[in-house]
Automatic annotation (TrEMBL):
Name by which UniProt lists this protein: Uncharacterized protein
One Pfam family from the record: DUF6638
Annotated region (Disordered), positions in chain: 413-461
InterPro entries per UniProt: DUF6638 (IPR046578)
Amino acid sequence: MKRLIEKGLMFGNLIRVDSPAWVSLYNRALQKITGRQTALAEFHIDISGHSPEIGDEFGDMDYLAPEGGNRHFILLTTEQKSAPMLNADLSVLRDVLRGFITQNESQLFSLTARDAVLGEIDDRIWQLAEPADLPQIRRLSVTADTTGGHVAEADRLAAMIDRFRSRPDGWWDDVLIAQMIEQARKSGDVTRNPVRLAHTEFDVADFWAADFGGVYLIRSAREPAMIFADPARKAEVQGFLAMSVGDRHQIAAWLARNALAEPVISARGADAAPILRQKIDFILADAAVRLGLDTGDGGRAALRRAAARMGTDLPPEIRGLSALHRYAEQGGDWPVIDSADPAYFYAIRATPGPARDLVNRLLAELAPHDLRLLFMTHKPLFYRLYQTWPDAKRDYVAEMLAREYAIDKQGTREALFGPEPGMSDTDPAPRRQAAGPWGPARVSLSEAGLPRPAGPWGAAR
């Protein structure tokens, strides 16, 4: 992992905690959550306040998420909103915490100026004993307060003020007035400087969960589905179409029926030829390292020379992607590629909509040799696979990601995935029969949304 850390591809954008005051505030919050404190004088934290250095010190990389409990967080500054989230076992946790900080920024800025803010993200599920429990996660609730209880103290004073104002004889209640004065010494003037955190409830429609070997739950589609990364953990859940990542034809048909994916070559605003060319490079580099072939500097010319020496070991995805690449650059006959072709899931991307990022994450698992997509959308899987690769492949991948992604992350995301999804979803495609008496139906790229190529009398209607 050292290569990734040095190039800013792992533990990048973390917040540095190196002042004695911040370390002291962090330890006060850590003591309340875990009953422990760190001896480190300097460390880094993510958006939730999790520190990889402290995790290594404690021998527990999930020290802010106790087993069977909710995810806790520690805020020292509102600048944590721009940091990544490490060890997230639910894909939406970072978005929820970022939304909480952004929508309560002025209040949190005031609170963190004098104390650390600690809290938890509650999924309102007591226990995830089986996959059927996952659909119960519909809303995440965020609760937070300072280590000194400033929010709770402010709430008490606000309640006293409401009672004072609502009672006709409030001015003659000396006891209540004395209590308000004493409480104001603890919480300050909440009428001029209110300390009340709003926007603490967040609806969750689609998410990936690390439980049960990894599960994609997509509820916003016309046909809700749960897709299991581990086929052995696949389970039927009422109201959801159950699939595993090995059910390629079934997944392809479901994506097409629900208009969740589109061919890269016909996607609006996508420069298809360079995208397909780079996917081919990634696959060739992976195969060359696996076969022990010299890739030189890892450039395109060196990869072509290595491909020429592969013979029958040439990856099966190359044929379909090369045909699409030629079509994108030169035109001609449209290559027929269906869901049985190894290149199929490399050649599509998610359509705009609420499930876009999650569908791209699923496609990365279905097309694992697209290393850039895997790194951008599914870091837990990328890091797990990275540890199993030989050094030559690690060098190539780290260099490639640093050169072609880290320099312009936002531009790369827009080039690959298109602009951020708007409020309106695309119209769903007409339903097709997903399976027949001989098994799941295959789906071609044209059925996934590509118009038929032009004939001698112009474009087909």
